[in-house]
Structures are given as structure tokens and as C-alpha cells.
Amino acid sequence: MTFRAAQDCLDGLLAFARAWPADVVVGAAQAHAAPLVAHYLGASYVRFATDLAEPTAEALAAIAELGPELERLGLYDLPRPMFSVSVAPPSLRSADAPPALPLRHIPYAPQQRTLEPWAYTKGSRPRVLVVTKGDDSAAPDDSVPRELLSAIVSELAALDAEIVVSPSGPGTDTLAVPGHVRCAPVPFDVIAPTCDAVVHFGDAQLVLGCLAHGIPQAVLPATRRLEEHGARIAELGAGTMRRLADTAAHSVAADCAELLADSAYRGAAALLRDELRTMPLPSALVAELELIGTPGKAAV
Amino acid sequence: MRMLFVAGGTSGVIFSIIPLAQAARNAGHEVFMAGPNNMMPTITSAGIPGIAVTSRDMLETLFDDAGNRRRIPTDLHERYIFNGRQFGRYASWCLEGLLPLVDRWRPDVVVGGALAFAAPVVARYAGVPYVKHAVDMGEPRTIDLAAAAELAPDLKRLGLHEMPWSDLFVDICPPSLRESDAPPAQLMRYVPYATKGSIEPWMYTKGERTRLLVSAGNRVTPDYFDVLGGLVNKVSRLAVELLVMAPESAAEKLGPLPDNVKVGWVPLDVVAPTCDVVMSHAGGTTVLGNMHYGVPQVLVPYLPYALGFTRRLCDYGAAKMVSPEEDSPENIAQACEEVLETPSYRQRARDIAAEMAGLPTPAQALPAVERLVA
Lengths: 300, 374
Known about the structure:
The structure holds 2 protein chains of 2 kinds.
Chain A lengths: L3 H16 L4 E5 L4 H9 L2 E6 L9 H7 L1 H6 L10 E4 L14 E2 L14 H4 L6 E5 L14 H12 L4 E5 L15 E2 L4 H4 L5 E4 L3 H10 L3 E3 L7 H9 L3 E3 L7 H13 L1 H15 L4 H12 L7
Parallel strand pairs in A: 1-2, 2-3, 3-4, 5-6, 5-8, 6-7, 8-9, 9-10
Helix pairs in contact in A: 1-2, 6-10, 8-11
Chain B lengths: L1 E5 L4 H16 L3 E7 L3 H5 L5 E5 L21 H29 L4 E5 L4 H9 L3 E4 L7 H10 L1 H6 L10 E4 L14 E2 L13 H4 L5 E6 L6 H14 L4 E6 L2 H6 L7 E4 L3 H4 L5 E4 L3 H9 L4 E3 L7 H10 L2 E3 L7 H13 L1 H15 L4 H12 L1
Parallel strand pairs in B: 1-2, 1-4, 2-3, 4-5, 5-6, 6-7, 8-9, 8-11, 9-10, 11-12, 12-13
Helix pairs in contact in B: 1-15, 3-4, 3-5, 8-13
């Protein structure tokens, strides 16, 4: 939720808050209506960085858009959170990121009505998962050209590995793939335990998902915004990163071959997985929320 | 750790085991829930990967192989045996899909809903611990024994001489309502869960008037329509708000409604906190859900398995029973009035809610399951 989204949500949120007064408001970091509705209710506000992103100076523009709404509520600035929560493991958090309670990332995906056995069963060959991204006319900067996607899949198909393409994003469900490549949507949390490498386009949920399962990743960010974490993954040895703009399909396949062949990648990914596993579980965070949500304790 | 949850065949009993499955997922475990194909949306909409292990559904257990509807005995003991055999048949169908599933996806532990009798069998087959998870406040034990009898051919095929016992029992019945001889258990707080549709403001907000909820459950029989229709007529003249929780199709059948009556499908966990009294057929999750929110209840236990816990909740003082033979709209309305006018019902309902809130949450109960494997 950025720019106009907060304004569009606010009236509905305030009406809802009057009918159902919450004790705690947990808002995604970009959901700037959350601190406003919390202030309106006198409830505690917790800022939840649901991916690897930290508040950026760019967010100030979105907040500036909210001037009239702040004025309406008698505020001069967005209310500060009681605390922030971040799912970024320490190794991936930037040094100047504001303090936040760590939360272990648990991969979540919408489930499907039917799960075929292949989705959760590993064959004899290593498995490479490609999570596609669409040719999105609504967000052209973030798009992956279909021809490049097809070329990458074709090059990967030549590896001695089982290739699974999980289409995600506009227009990718009809992607043409070589005959022996599976192309079917499958929930990431179901297939992840069977994967030996994942190719994706920089989505933070997938960066984190691969870390949670200790899978080496080949990251192909389409925008500069998505590059930073791919670069950090490469730096930590848990994968490779290439800017999509200057990537040739065959070099992606070469990267994947290396991810499968060189056990150092798997080792580095396992180290990061172990780091993730030391982070507090959601149930521990809920206990913190209960504490600040208890009437009378909020002032502590 | 890999945890295989084995679900029963109807949404109510699946709702009961979803909180522990979600807690296990949120603790980083790999969780699958197996069930019949027609229940997949109930499972997957809770964010849990679902595996369809049979194409047959629970209702089919009422028919013989020739497609004739089996006669339901009227004698209570015979009816428990009949019910047990139904669950046994359902379990046998589930095993067809469950055995190959655990050959491919080897679980570390199997958690089964209490009436999902395929769970102990598949756990033994896989050589892993079996956790029995209560789905309500306990059923007559004759049901378990009859289910085992029905499963005898499957047990024999797998080289078993009896139903494997559970390595752990997770019970959601608060201590005050447990039977005196109830087996030892890891107690767990009951967390109301129900599949959500779109939620409207009237569901979670209460007006000035007393709010009475009548839950018809999933089974709306023609007889029951007479009861509902009678109730609607009766309360339309009273200064109360009546919510009838029934499939949307029921609204049409009930005809034009007065403006203090609403009919529709409302998730109980959304609406219960706004209710002053709830009348239902004593389905396990409905009763527990209202107990969780401290709502006094009027219970008509149409299904015989509910008789035991209905009596215990009435003895405790948080509910009033109307026996199914006496379910006239007059009697039900009178019982609702009595519950509304006698403060002790609300107080006892709050007492049991407080007791339930003090029990370990699913996340806190989970380590008992984890320890079986460690």
C-alpha cells in the first residue's frame, strides 16, 4: 500500500475501527494507514516489515501525500510504532536498518485444491525450480520478457536435472516449454523441500523462502530495487545474481549447473537456514503483542 | 519435522484440528492434511496443503454397495454401533490413498482427528507415533469399538490384531467438563476456526437489542424447517434480533422475513462474541465455540453422540437442554428466555471460557507432539 492506497483505505479502516476497536494494530511497513488508524483508536501500533525491505527515503513521498489525512487527525507526522518487526535475518539486514524484533520467516503460499504426488516427491535427478514472473503491463519495469523466459527454460532443460516451472504472473501459464519440462503451478512451501536449486526474479518472498529451506538460488532481478538482496545472497555464497537486463539465457543455465555441482553453495545456504531457525517463531511474537495489547500495559 | 494430519469427513471435525496444524506450520514444520476430496477446499483455504486420499465422501457411508440407504437404528446402543461402522467404512476408504501417500512422503508423526480411524492404522504402517486429537468433548466409546470392528479386514491385511493405541492424546475439553475416567491427555485450548466468506459489519457489531443466534448447522432437514419457521414467527414479535445460521438456500425457503430476523451463513467465531444466547443442535464445534466466547447456550442434541457432553455442560450450568422429542418452537423459545433471564447461565458460560483461556495454546501444546519424535 503506497501513495494513494493509504488514503483510499483510511475511511473504510476508520469506520471498521469504530465498529471493532482493536487493541493492537499490526501494519505492513508500506501500509501507512495502519499508524493512523492505531492513533485514532489509541491502540498500540506495530510496524511489520514483511519482506527484506527497510523504510527508505522514498517512503517519505508516500507519507507526504498523506498530509491532509494527518491534518484531519491532528497529527504532524506519522505516529511511530511501539516496535518494529523484521523477518530479515541479521546477515541480510543492512547495517543502518532501524532496530526491529526479529521474526522467523515461515514460507506461506495459497494452496491448491489438487496436489499431484510429483509436487512433493523427489525423483532420482536433482530438481531445479523456476518461479516465473509475468510480462506485467501494469508494472512494466518489473516484467520479464516472455522470449527471455522461454530461452532460459530451454537452456535449463539441457542440464542433467529435472526442471519444474511454476508459472506465476500474467501470461505465464501458457508459456511454451520443452516436452520433458513440467510447467504447472505448485505452492512453494510444498515443493521447496524437494528442490536443489531455485531460479527466480528477485521477489523477496522467494529469497526468504529459499533461505528458510536452505536452497541455493539463482537470482535474476528485473529492477535495481530487487538487486540489493540478490547481491547479498551472492556475496554470502548462497547463490548467484545477474541483472536480468544483461543476462544471456545460457549463463543462467551455467549458474544453475554450478549451484548443483559445487556443494559450497548448499553449505552456505544451510548456514543461512540455520541462522533463520534461531529467529523467534510467530508464537513468541504473539506473546509480545498480547503484552502491549493488554489494557493498562500499553503505557509501559 | 514432517507431520501428517488425518482429517475426518465433515467440516466441523476438520475445523477442530486446524489450529494445531497451523501452529505446527508456523513452528516451521512440514504439514500435510489428508482428507476426502470433497473436503479439500476446507483444508486448503486454511493455508494447509491438502492431500485427497479418497474420492468418496462421508455421506456415502450411509449407503450399502447396492446404493440402498442403510436403516438407522433407533435404539441408542445400536445407533452408536451403526455410527462407529460408518466411521470405520470411511477410514477404510481413506487408507486406500493414505498408505501410498506415506510410502512417498514419509511422516515423522501422524496426528488424527478422534473419529478419523485411519490415522492410528497408517501411523502403525509407517512405524511412527500416533497422536489422537479430540474434535469435540468426547464421543461414546462404543463408536470407537464398532469402528475397529468394521476395519478388521484392513487391520488383518496389515498384520494387526487390534487398533493401535495413541502415543499421545490432545484433548480440547476443559477439565471441569472432562469425564471422571477420561484418559490422560495433553490439554489444549480450543481455538474457534471456521471457513470465512465475506464478513459484513452486522456480523461483528451488536445493536441495542438482545441477540439470539440459531445455528442450524450443515444438516437442515425438512422437519427442522418447521422448527426454524416456527421460531422465526415467534420471535418476530419480540424485541430481540434473531440470526439464523443456515445455508443461503434456507433463506428462500423460510419466505419473507421480518426485519429483526437475518438468515445466512455466518462464521461462528465472528458472530459469537456479539450473541446473548445461542441455540443449536449441539454440534461439537458449535458448542465449543460458544464456550470459548462465554456465550450461554440452548442445546437440542439431535445427534446422539452429543448427548454426553450436552448433559455435562448443562450440569455445569452454562447451557439448557431441550430434548429432541420436545423441540417445538414454543419450548425452544421458552428455554432461550429462561437462559436470558437467569444470570447464572451467563456467569457459568464466562467461568468455562476463563478456564479454557487458561489452557495451553496450540503453540504451547505442540512441544508434546515434537517430543514424541525427538
